[in-house]
Amino acid sequence: MREAIVEKGFWYQYKYLIEDEDLKSLNKYKEFAELLDICKKKESEAKKNEKPDLKIIVPVKMNEQYQHPLIIALHG
């Protein structure tokens, strides 16, 4: 986890880290508290900078005789 957060810059949702049963035993360690703090700051920063985005991609050759498939992708 330290490698992912410190060295690679990834972060995990703060709520997940403090509520996950598998991680509760780590709460007593100073290093884990430091990782929590890093993740909390990165999560807060990400929330400030997030912007919803809508992309519509139309087939290059539109032809009314051909039924184009509809694909919808959502990511949260």
TrEMBL record:
InterPro entries: BCE_2095-like_N. It comes from marine sediment metagenome. This is BCE-2095-like N-terminal domain-containing protein. Residues 1-47 form the BCE-2095-like N-terminal domain.
